[in-house]
Amino acid sequence: MAKVSVFNMEGNEVGDIELADSIFNVEINEHLVHMAVVSQLANNRQGTQSAKTRSEVSGGGKKPWRQKGTGHARQGSTRSPQWTGGGVVFAPKPRDYSMSLNKKEKRIALKSALTSRVQEGKFIVIDSLKLDEIKTKALVNTLNSLNVNKALVVLNENDANVVKSAKNIPDVKAALTNTINVYDILKYDTVVIDKAAVETIEEVYA
């Protein structure tokens, strides 16, 4: 089992914790990690962009001028794509960009992402992460004491003070154990997680 240090909010080492090999020391599957990130980004797309084709633009029923004898090129409608106010060629239409991975693939991808952070030494465990009030400065001080700038803060229970304090820091995001995902783990340089959250992850993904 991999063993990592446990710190308090002042950045002092107060012990260590053994991480389950079945979650934090698996063989990294780069393909599934990539697929998980692509899937999440695709699923975030609304797919609501739309423009009108020539069949949907109003007007243009009358032929602009007769077929021959004017010196102009032949035209059948003022709503053809080459006309101002005409339709759009191959106009974008609402579509579904979503992709899906099965449950087993998602679990392997998440375990691979967590393993990569542990192997890189960017997985920091805190004995307890709680704030008495919404205080961004207090959370910033904690992260600075851990020498962390861009972090994903993982909580076991929803602490509104920590979550709202994290929202005021540009490169920090707070998440619960049931909302963590591969994209966020890779997007933020370091995972800062409280000890109880580690135990919950090991119970859920064991």
Any overview of this molecule?
It is elongated and about 95 Å long. The protein has 206 residues and is an alpha/beta fold. A hairpin with a 5-residue loop joins strand 1 (2-7) and strand 2 (13-19). The longest helix is centred in the middle third of the chain and has 17 residues, at 103-119. The protein has helices spanning 21-24, 30-43, 103-119, 136-145, 160-167, 182-187, 195-205, and strands at 2-7, 13-19, 123-126, 151-155, 172-176, 190-194. Helix 2 (30-43) crosses helix 3 and helix 4 crosses helix 5. The two termini are 14 Å apart.
What is the number of beta strands? 6
Q: Strand count, sense and closure of the main sheet?
A: 6 strands, mixed
* Net shape: elongated
**Strand coverage percent:** 15-25%
Percent range of helical residues: 25-40%
Secondary-structure content class: alpha/beta
Q: Tally the helices.
A: 7
The H-and-E topology, N to C, reads as EEHHHEHEHEHEH
Q: Give average pLDDT, whole number.
A: 91
Q: How is the largest sheet built, in terms of strand order?
A: 2-1-3-6-4-5
Radius of gyration: 27 Å
CA distance, first residue to last residue = 14 Å
List the helices and strands and how they pair.
Blueprint: E1 2-7, E2 13-19, H1 21-24, H2 30-43, H3 103-119, E3 123-126, H4 136-145, E4 151-155, H5 160-167, E5 172-176, H6 182-187, E6 190-194, H7 195-205
Parallel strand pairs: 1-3, 3-6, 4-5, 4-6
Antiparallel strand pairs: 1-2
